[in-house]
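tool=predict chain=A
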Amino acid sequence: MIVFFDELLTFFGRFHPLLVHLPIGILLLAFFMAMMTRVKDGAIYLPAIRLSLFLGAIAATIAAMSGYLLSRNGGYEDEVLDYHKWLGIAVAIGSLLLWFLYRKEPTGSVWLKKVFVFRFWLFLSLVLLLGFTGHYGGTLTHGKGYFMEAMPLALKKLFTGGEDKDEIFIVENAQEAGAYAGIIQPILKQRCQSCHGQKKHEGGLALDSKDNLLRGGENGAVLMANDSKKSELYNRLVLPEGHKKRMPPKGRTPISADQIKLIAWWIDHGADFNKKVRELPQTGEIAHILKRLETGEKDEPSVLYADLPLAPALPKEKVNVWQAKGIKVIQIAKDNNFVMVNAINYPKFSDKDLQELLAIKDNIVQLKLGNTAVTDLAFPTLSAMPILSRLHLENTAVSDAGLTQLKGMSKLAYLNLSGTKVTSKGLLELNDLPSLKNIYLYKIANQDAAILKQLNPKIKIDTGNYSLPFIATDTIRF
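tool=predict ok
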């Protein structure tokens, strides 16, 4: 009997998508009539408003109950679900309160009389609340960015300031990543699963797992191993813009050319779900795309560094030695030899190792030395790198003494000093760097606000020391 009752409640919860539209329509109709009461002879609408609010309150309550029962099945993002749930409850309570206020003018309580005067504005607040509730409901069923993706480009730029809010897809070590799990699946999740994921299967197709990908959709298989041209998964991505079958559909953030090339590469080499990237053959272009995944850079470096002179050829033998140690040397431009050097896999990286990098000082534009063994003795070497623009020194032994030697670095734009011995006073040495725009100072010992105010106003200082609520999805970066 208990099992039957539980199943019955689950069944009732499935009616939520149908029931949730009733209070929306009823309450919006009531609000339209409430607006009409503010014009001449508008009082004739009051009986209809009272009835609509009463029915709207009942419908909102039933919708909230069915929504709660549906949420017990899980599969929803907790934070968004909580917003949607509590806003839905607030709509039900608010509509009931408004029904009471629109019944008749109160004669007893002074407080109720004051609230009565503002009942129309309370109604307007309820309509706004209804909009936010619907927004979070749409986010639950269609994923984040559902409304923004379909917004006309001009309006999107107006609301976002023209900035690209797309999530960054970064792979720490692309060659060691699983070709499917580490590269292809994150692309599908980022670009396809709002329509073809766990909750929504347009065309009967889900791309959230190996089994679903192999199963295909209503029209059959979408994956033909070793032949991307015969794979519907790939063909839908390369249809002409505006074609009704092109994916992602018009209005959604388009998949990038690099991502399409990676999908084709994976399919053409067997669509294997177990092999690592390094186990699959790679052309020079594919290898270059994979390297860019490690930096999060888009295919724009030649524009970013357009004012720099052409970099000389890289000494392959030296680069191979560094790579063998775990020091990554990643070329970041197709038409130039600019590189990012990352010592993430070589924590013993020392001042002496840095001196050896002077062999490619005219190539290095980004240098990541966080969590290594470098000290203040590294700064003379760093200042000898003429085109270095981004420098990571977080969690190292550097201090104020070394910062005095950075004055000649005219191209330095980004500096991360989090978790170091640097103090606010030492930062004054950086005031005259012409290109410096961002300094990161999380967890430094002395953050004197008065001294920080003396820094050049064009330099953005991020000192951290704030806390954010934990969100489960923050542990995944795409």
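The radius of gyration is 29 Å. Residues 46-71 form the longest helix (26 residues).
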